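[User]
If only I could read backbone structure tokens as easily as an amino acid sequence. I have put the entry right below:
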Amino acid sequence: MAVLAELVVPSNLLDRIGNTPLLEIPLARQGEVRVFAKAEFFNPGGSVKDRPALNMIREGERRGTLRPGKILLDSTSGNTGIAYAMICAAKGYAVKLCLPANASRERKQILRAYGAELVLTDAGEGSDGAFRVCHRIYEADPESYFYPDQYSNPANWQAHYATTGPEIIEQTAGRITHFVAALGTTGTFTGVTRRLRAEFPQVRCISVQPAWPLHGLEGTKHMPSSIKPDIYDPDLADENLWIETEEAYAMARQLAREGLLVGVSAAANVLAATRVAERLSNEKQAGLVVTILCDGGQKYLSEHFWND
């Protein structure tokens, strides 16, 4: 009979964060240019945000700013909050999250299931409004909270420098030519780009943003009109692609019809990566484009666009 001590698989839920598969996106292929995406919905919390959330929590524990009795407080559009709530449930910490009231019903339900306290903020003010409310709560009672502040915390982008970037390099055998990712907190783009620049400086790194201040790409920021995260480096991207909400919705529907159910920001990433691949193909260039599937589509099924 097998002895449990002999098992070599990770036995801790949090050990399952990272090492996500790299999937080819067939519909995005353009001639000889192939497009791949990190399937971050394989993380236990269901999104790419598991990586920075875990890193920020561990850094807080290491510094002693997060300890028993403290409440983790932060603002979120949903996925980082879910990651915080899952990890803190496993570790035994209380969680209080500020998020826009128009966050999808599924995200709110998941957060409540993990035991998080929700402070719903003005939907019209988006993630910036949630950030301002969160900061006021913290300033009123700083001794009660651990406030990682995902928009300012270098442990956010460092998680991707240490994990996501090296995984992409290994999974593409160093053949990546272009990296494409949407900007929200900017942690994913910043961390992966800095790692690629350190090891493969010839790789072009392209950021993605909503085309307009009012948009439906949850988790992303239109930087010209938003509070800019402290970890944002505007000089890091080789270029930026602007994505219309309706085009991202259409791509989400198209991906689902081909068996890949992903969220809207993931669809925006695939759309942008497809445009990069199309341009390379038209210029008769080879390429291997990598992007990020930030999360799955299950958290968005109540949104109207699936039926359009």
The first strand starts at residue 22 and ends at 24. The chain has two domains: 4-48+154-307, 50-146. DSSP finds eight helices and ten strands in the chain. Strands lie at 22-24, 33-39, 71-75, 94-100, 117-121, 145-146, 178-182, 204-210, 239-243, 287-293.
